[in-house]
């Protein structure tokens, strides 16, 4: 498509001749002939600094916030990230207009909730596209992903694929970063769902108010909202917005509510009342927080017009989401191992309190905090682990470019506010080994923080580290008496 067609009526200044654009890239290393390179201004890097490299790699045009001294056409816009999103929509033919799109946001629970909605919709005969943290899915086809919400040009390409392949419903995790960075700019959501809001990503957003404001953008672009009435931030999230809404809760009055809740080691059962009727619900993933996730999924599906029997059937058939309250095989050993992505204070508390519901022995928590991320949450997580565990093994997570022991020191500031017994073992594999070899009958070893991740990031290098594989190997060694 010609650059003039991509930018028509957008009011941007065009420098240079018209040129055909086949792709839009924001990584100069991926630029080839026919690509427009967007000079995105990020948190740590400025894309304008990579424009020369992009031109050398064959960039046909640049999307910039200031004119650069390179002999290629340039689109000069006040915000290059927003311009990239607008041009990407046009390049791929506005695919979002051909799709019904559901967005789910919140600190915790997005992934599980989207999988629940997907399963229910498929029970109703729909072909579903899913965009999320673990993977992107078109029907039965899996597409790998690097971010919770893809960058705008990748997102538009995925939506075009979904539209072309006859997807009936798109269910998308929508992160606060994506909303703040205009990755979903121009997309209208049929329904927006809200799980909860707790401390996370303050390294990026700086204040909780900024974090809330980013989440709020989803509901400014949604035709309907389903929100958690038990979360105190729901009211502020929707304040002043003229969007119809449905609420769900366990404690507060709501349109959807659950009672007679029974939490077991492998599942959770409860009675759910909705505007579409009442049903007994069984979800094969334990934890009170999965009652909330199921109610949110049900609320969205009720609004979509799905019958209660299909909603109950779909929730009963939800496969355990990788790295979300996942019970790992421990055949031959009298203890259990739970793997979970919990990497926020609230996520860790929810995880440990849920595990407590079905644990007759001790809870042994193995966890750390990521480097180059929100420092303030580290002692809070340490204190949460200390208060809700019987024993803690403090270790490294993804230290990235930070000193792992410095991160552990921040965590210990919180742990030491409690009376919990603990050990510090920086090497994560050795930390898991310690927990497994010291577990007693009926204990539950909780591996928190990495969940579905299959790597450990140290000094910008991602080393293979799949905790499911690690646990299996360590248990094999224990069986062999090593």
In a nutshell, what does this entry contain?
This protein has helices spanning 3-6, 51-56, 80-91, 110-123, 152-164, 176-180, 202-205, 208-220, 234-238, 288-303, 308-316, 345-357, 377-388, 404-415, 428-438, 467-479; strands at 13-15, 23-25, 35-38, 61-64, 74-76, 101-105, 128-131, 135-138, 141-144, 169-173, 191-194, 225-228, 245-249, 256-263, 268-274, 277-283, 326-328, 336-340, 363-367, 391-394, 421-424, 444-448, 455-458, 461-464.
Span between termini: 63 Å
- Measured on Cα atoms, how large is the radius of gyration? 24 Å
Mean pLDDT over the full residue set: 92
Number of domains: 3
Strand line-up in the sheet with most strands: 9-8-7-10-6-11-12-13-14-15-16
Identify the overall geometry. Answer: globular
**Total beta strand runs:** 24
* Second-tier CATH architecture of the largest domain: 3-Layer(aba) Sandwich
User: Mind telling me the CATH class of the largest domain?
Assistant: Alpha Beta
Helix-residue proportion: 25-40%
The description of the largest β-sheet is: 11 strands, mixed
- Provide the CATH superfamily of the largest domain: Mur-like, catalytic domain
The computed structural class is: alpha/beta
| Contiguous helical run count | 16
Low-confidence stretches: none
CATH topological fold name of the largest domain: UDP-N-acetylmuramoyl-L-alanine:D-glutamate ligase
Beta-strand proportion: 15-25%
Walk me through the structure.
The longest helix is centred in the middle third of the chain and has 16 residues, at 288-303. Helix 4 (110-123) packs across helix 10, helix 4 (110-123) crosses helix 11 (308-316) and helix 10 (288-303) packs antiparallel against helix 11 (308-316). This protein folds into three domains: 3-81, 3-Layer(aba) Sandwich (Udp-n-acetylmuramoylalanyl-d-glutamate--2,6- Diaminopimelate Ligase, Chain: A, domain 1), CATH 3.40.1390; 95-316, Mur-like, catalytic domain (UDP-N-acetylmuramoyl-L-alanine:D-glutamate ligase); 326-479, Alpha-Beta Complex (Protein-Tyrosine Phosphatase, Chain A), CATH 3.90.190. The protein is 34% helix and 22% strand. The protein has 16 helices and 24 strands. Strand 14 (256-263) and strand 15 (268-274) form a beta hairpin. It is an alpha/beta fold. It starts with a helix and ends with a helix. The protein has helices at residues 3-6, 51-56, 80-91, 110-123, 152-164, 176-180, 202-205, 208-220, 234-238, 288-303, 308-316, 345-357, 377-388, 404-415, 428-438, 467-479; strands at 13-15, 23-25, 35-38, 61-64, 74-76, 101-105, 128-131, 135-138, 141-144, 169-173, 191-194, 225-228, 245-249, 256-263, 268-274, 277-283, 326-328, 336-340, 363-367, 391-394, 421-424, 444-448, 455-458, 461-464.
